[in-house]
Design brief:
Pfam families: Glyco_hydro_12. Belongs to the glycosyl hydrolase 12 (cellulase H) family. This protein has 169 residues and is of the alpha+beta class. The protein contains three helices and seven strands. The strands form three sheets. The chain has a three-stranded antiparallel sheet, with helices on one face. A two-stranded antiparallel ribbon has the order 3-4. It has a two-stranded antiparallel sheet with strand order 6-7. Strand 1 and strand 2 form a beta hairpin. Helix 2 packs antiparallel against helix 3. The radius of gyration is 19 Å and the shape is globular. The relative contact order is 0.10. About 11% of the residues have low confidence.
């Protein structure tokens, strides 16, 4: 039995048949026509989730979260890496990385990361920042760690991806 595709499925079929650079332009035009934020977000999620972030600093933005494919130390070895967004929701960001690095055994190759945009406040006004993390490694022969970075700045309007001071845990 043939079932009629939903509007999201239909639009994705149409978008997938277009030249890739036009997909986002068409999506923006469609977004203004239908004026439905949830539908727009669904389009963006479905299109972006299928595309891995493999270039230096490729970043996915959604719902106040970012996932970044930061390969800042790639010159210390040979290889590649792609970051894949699995899910973004009000509860957080879920993502994974596939990599293949060799050489520079004790040098950092990359720092793929996710972040959340918090309301800007003075440090004295923050009593807690509830956080949770879960991680898995499918290779036991790696040298890896996890860091939690907090950026602060004297100017409350400073960008949030860097700061005058950084606290790394």
């Amino acid at each position: 039995m043939f079932s009629r595709p939903s509007i999201v499925e239909y639009c994705l079929i149409v978008l997938n048949q277009m030249i890739p650079p036009l997909r986002h332009i068409t999506l923006i035009g469609l977004a203004f026509q239908i004026n439905n934020h949830q539908l727009i977000q669904t389009f963006l999620d479905k299109i972006t989730f299928r595309k891995p972030n493999c270039a230096q600093y490729d970043t996915y933005f959604s719902r106040g979260y970012t996932v970044n494919n930061n390969m800042w130390g790639k010159v210390s070895g040979t290889g590649s890496q792609c970051t894949y967004v699995d899910k973004i929701s009000g509860d957080g960001a879920s993502w994974h990385v596939k990599w293949n690095w060799s050489g520079g055994d004790y040098s950092v190759k990359s720092y793929p990361n996710s972040g959340v945009e918090l309301q800007k406040k003075h440090a004295k006004d923050i009593s807690s920042i509830p956080t949770s993390t879960k991680r898995n490694y499918d290779n036991t022969n790696i040298n890896a760690d996890v860091a939690y970075d907090l950026f602060t700045a004297a100017n409350i309007n400073h960008v949030t991806y860097s700061g005058d001071y950084v606290l790394m845990i």
